[in-house]
Amino acid sequence: MVDPKRVLSYEDMLKIIHQPEKVIIDVRSPEEVKSTGKIPSSINIPLNNVQDALITMSEEEFKKQFQRPKPSSSDELIFYCQSGRRSSEALDKALKLGYTKSKTYLGSWNDWSSKQK
């Protein structure tokens, strides 16, 4: 069960997409993202690559691949996926890696896409 203080709503996300210091991470596969689209300003790091991207990847590699600076452990990371399951897993990984300000958008793509009419 995800700590309610770490869960964001659609309304929260509408504000966050305009806050470039926050890092929105889509943990779906690149194929899923291609077929549906993504939340504005998000970057795609599939769930299985989250730990490598945050810990192993160099600053240069991260910036080259995602066109933004690699987040530090004090940055706010927001994870989403299709329905919230993988984003909760990613949140758990990030917290264990020391990214203490991490959160999840539990409604994820299903919620976002249903409200973006």
From TrEMBL:
It comes from the Eukaryota. GO terms for molecular function: thiosulfate-cyanide sulfurtransferase activity. SUPFAM superfamilies: Rhodanese/Cell cycle control phosphatase. It holds the Pfam family Rhodanese. InterPro entries: Rhodanese-like_dom, Rhodanese-like_dom_sf. One of its GO terms (cellular component) is mitochondrion. Residues 18-117 form the Rhodanese domain. PANTHER family: THIOSULFATE SULFURTRANSFERASE RDL2, MITOCHONDRIAL-RELATED, THIOSULFATE SULFURTRANSFERASE_RHODANESE-LIKE DOMAIN-CONTAINING PROTEIN 3. This is Thiosulfate sulfurtransferase/rhodanese-like domain-containing protein 3. It comes from Vanessa tameamea (Kamehameha butterfly). The gene is LOC113398356.
